[in-house]
Amino acid sequence: MFATKTITPAFTQACRTPASTRVTNPARRFLATSTSKVLISDSIKSDHRSLEEARDKIYEAYKAGDADTQRRWQNQLTWELARHSIGEELVVYPAFEKHLPDGKEMAEADRGQHRMVKEHLAKFQVMTPDDKEFIPTLEALWVDLGNHIKEEESEDLPKLEQALNDEDSQALTTSFARTKHFIPTRSHPSAPDRPPYETVVGLMAAPMDKLRDMFAKFPVEKGGN
Ligand SMILES: [Fe+2]
Ligand SMILES: [Fe+2]
């Protein structure tokens, strides 16, 4: 067990509100069967709720002293965050640049925030739950990620939705979902097997233009990017 001084208000709050008691985001349920009518902002928010759920599950397992469950949700959080970040960088941030007058600055700021999150994630993903820095590293990651999520949801995505009609927004969701589809959900033998893509950090460090080329080999929906 770690010293209680590592437990912050965010940790306590997360433990008080088990993810299992929360109402599942309707957009998330819908995404399970179809992405054709989901706005891009709902799709992104649904991912954010999933990331929060994974964080909360780690906290709950930590509190219960269950290292195995912590490890499983650590993997889930790591890969979901990687997929989400790459999907945004390949699909959503280019849409900021294309459709918004200040989109280039917004995208650049968001990419900078992603870089900070990735640095924390690089440390976190190789840690084991018995490491005394495991929870503090997750909390440090979440300070940056939480602020970034707040900014995306309260500022960036509303601006983007305002600039798009529903059809264009839904087409972005399709592109976003398809991009994520080609990124593994965890590191396992069938995951990309050559450096640098065999680890999540390698994947996230991959040059975006390389990944963009890879995903550009698929049909583009009307209004998509
Ligand atoms: Fe983001
Ligand atoms: Fe995001």
UniProtKB/TrEMBL annotation:
Transmembrane segments annotated in the record for this chain: none
All residue ranges annotated as the Hemerythrin-like domain in the record: 41-160
A Pfam family reported for this protein in Swiss-Prot or TrEMBL: Hemerythrin
This protein's name: Hemerythrin-like domain-containing protein
Source organism (scientific name): Oleoguttula mirabilis
Taxonomy of the source species: Eukaryota, Fungi, Dikarya, Ascomycota, Pezizomycotina
